[in-house]
Structures are given as structure tokens and as C-alpha cells.
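REVIEWER CHECKLIST
Item 1: Sequence provided? yes
Item 2: Single chain? yes
Item 3: Sequence as submitted:
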Amino acid sequence: MPNWDSIRKIDFPITQKFTYLDHAAGGVVSRPAFQAANEFWKQALREGDFRWIEWLERKEVARRQIAAFINAEPEEIAFVPNTSEGMNLIAELFDSKAEVIASDMEFPASTIPFLYRKFPVRFLKARGNKTLPEDFRKALRPKTKIIISSYVQYASGFRQNIRELSRVAKRHGAVLVVNASQALGAFPIDVKALGIDCLAANSYKWMLAGYGGGIVFVRKGLLRKRKPRFAGWRSVNEPDCYDNRRIDVKSEASRYEYGGPAFPNFFALGTACDYLTSIGKEAIAKRILSLTDYLVDELRAHSIPVLSPLEPEFRSGIVIAKVQNPAETSKKLFRHKIFAIPRGEGLRIAPHFYNNESDVDRLIRFLRKG
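Item 4: Structure as written out by the authors:
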């Protein structure tokens, strides 16, 4: 088992002053990710663009690190600045006449790119705090071609059974698009085993790699079906030829990386993949669920209702606690250097693996004081 206390002490200095409990909003930056990005800035400061070729090679290393992290092929991975851009790139792969279905719990980054392009989008009413694969199956119609689902829902913490939802999609001949922002870095993701066709996620939540980085995964077959709507000088197969007349766009996902790369963001994300893998993806998931188990038990022991799913198979790193005036409660916690933010009728609490039971205890004490 990882030495959680040692990891906390060495890689997360924030714990010396703050109790940080909402990685579903924006995670802290781990020391390895910080060092990877900082090394780029030091090189740029001292050497300017002398490292350009080395940085391009390092970017491809990061692409391979990310691909290995989710069991994809490197050519299926594109770097993006955030989940929203990733979902926009996914949306452009499809005919806008294709019907889309999604839960009404979805985060807008999943659906606005499709709505803006005038896709017919049907929203399925959630049953309480969840929308199950069976609900999607019952909602399918002949013209339904795309199913969109977050791996973990941001406002309830419901963790979708992606493998079963993929089976539903495949039996119908539909494509499964997954927003993995609330899962990547918290739970192991194997795009091949889960049957995911397209996926978008960011670097700044559970990956602990800071803002400005993200990924989009597109299964090879889908990449070849449609040409991209936009292109830049680095979208072509030989960008360094600087040819103004010949447009030879790549067939790989990297065609979406139009211009100069945000090197430090991608280096941090690639390093984060290796860092989390070295700790153990399964161990991280178990640790997070252990902490949220403890949190739920403590909340219920002090008569604080839990709005998130309580069934083990639907649990995630997000727990919504029902409190009076969530916004004011959050502000009071901030003043005591505890970070958790309001969502709907409750307070969203989302610990990561470096947190511990003492962090939870401190939160509970302040919640009890009101």
C-alpha cells in the first residue's frame, strides 16, 4: 500500500495551512506536475527557443503517457486547453441531424457544443440523483445516434456504469461520448475495455496538474470518417515545410493542435499520468472511496443528510451534504481555510487520496457549529 502520510507531506504542501476538500472544482497541483511545468519555464527563461525540438519531442512523450493512462493509442489523443474545447471537437465529428440523448444532470460543457450546432438533444429526467443505463436504453429511438454521459456527475456524485452504457449504445448502433472530468485521476479508465468512443477531460481537477491542459480521445475509426472543420499550420503532416498551397491534414487526433503548443500544461499532465500510475490507479480509487465512506458515516452520525447516491456501485469522490444556506456555509468554511463549495441544496465535498480522516473531522466540527 502507498504511504499516504508520506505522499501528503512531500507532494502536497497545501496541507500545511489549508484543508482542501473540493477537487471536483479545481484540484491542487501536485509537486511532480508543478516541477514538470516549472522546468519548462526555467528553460524558456534561460534559453529561449533553443529547446524547441526537444519540447516537441517531449510533447509526444506526454501524449504517449496520456494514451497509456487510459489505454488508448497515441494517435487517438489530442491536447486541448479544457473539456469544453474537447467536447466541441467531438461534436464536429457528427452530422448535426443525429439525435443526442443525455441526462438532465449533465454539466453544460457536455451538451452546449451539440446544442450550439443545432443537434436535436433530448434530456432524460434523472431518477432522484442518478440516470441509469436502463433509462438510456428505454429512451433510444431509431434516430438516436449519440449518447452523452459524464463518468461522474458533478452535482450529485453519481458514478455511471460506463461499460453497461457502452453495451446499450453498441446494441443500438449509437456512439458513446464520455465527459471524464470528474473521474480522470480518481478512477481507472480503460477506453478499450469500457467501450468508449470519444472522451474529453481536463488537467486541473482530479489529475492535479493545474489549469490549461486537457485531452480529447477519439476512436480511430471515427477520426477517419470526417474532416476537421478547422485547421492550423500544425494540423498538417509536415508543418515545418511551411507550405501555403498544399493542405495535407493529419488523420490523427493531433490535427486539432492547430498552432504553438502550451508546452508546460501538457508536460504537467503527462507527468501527472506517470505520477498517479506510480502510486497505483486502483489504490487511489480505493483510498478516495474509503475517505468518502468515512465522510458519509460522519455526516449521517451527526444527522447531516447526504444527497449523493449511497449505493457502493454508484459512489464516487463527490459527496453532497445537505446544509442550511450552502453558500453562506461555504464562506464560513473559507474563513477557516476549509475549501468546499455549494452545489444545489448542499455543500460539495470531494477529497483526494492525499487527504485524510483528520481533514474530514475538521470539516465536520465546523459543520456542527453551523
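Item 5: Key structural point noted by reviewer: The CA atoms of residues 32 and 281 lie 16 Å apart.
Item 6: Recommendation: ____
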